[in-house]
Amino acid sequence: MSKKIVDLAIKRGVDLDSLPKHLAIIMDGNGRWAKTKGWQRLLGHREGYRALRSALLNADDLGIKYLTVYAFSAENWKRPAEEVAGLMKLIETAAREELKSMHKNNVRVNVSGRIDELPQGLQDALNHGMEVTANNTGIVFTLAVNYGGRAEIVDAVRDIVAAGFEPEDITEEIISAHLYNPQHPEPDLMIRTAGEMRWSNFLLWQGAYCELYVTEDPWPEFSGNHMIDAVLSFQTRTRKFGAVVE
Ligand code: IPE
Ligand code: IPE
Ligand code: MG
Fold this sequence. Notes:
The protein is α/β, with parallel strands linked by helices. The protein is 43% helix and 14% strand.
């Protein structure tokens, strides 16, 4: 059975042999999207969950091997308590509701962030998801929750110091090896929705050379065509990594 997104991608000129290996997404604009409808912000997050479900399916069907999404930043605790509590509940519900179908689709669930600071119910749901899918071999889906790029580097430095490394032993490889998911390739494409041209503390170390793609549309409206737009843009980029490319 051919997949709808693959047919669409081929029709639109995507080269399926040079897809980004690791796609990272800053899912932004849920609140503004809800506001344009006169709805509460939490309803925007609820709709964002639907958009994420289809983005995961689309990324998997396209053949992307790693998808990492920013669900809650280490700075998002500054939001009103009601929104924070609603988001925690929503992420927990989503983690529980989606597990069966993710497992069936051979998705390997992963997390990134200071997970031990999350409400216990959410921690349990995430840990259960990781355990159940630990041996799956399909797309690696990482939920960044209570994630901050600076916090991640602080945590890496703490581990490195605790392990007794000497100053002369510290290299980029050593720091990379102490980040939250050292086994993942670095993201090569980062999408941000809702038009903001900033990084907001996402994957600071790993994203050093990642290609950025920003769409004006808010996350709840993100579709397969948006993903294809981003991949098409990615495929026109010349990645130079500081060198001269003729
Ligand atoms: C992104 O949407 C979701 C989270 C940060 C949790 P926002 O909630 O940031 O939506 P805007 O940016 O206020 O529109
Ligand atoms: C980034 O979006 C965090 C997530 C998408 C989870 P924010 O909405 O928190 O970022 P800022 O505040 O606009 O930089
Ligand atoms: Mg935002």
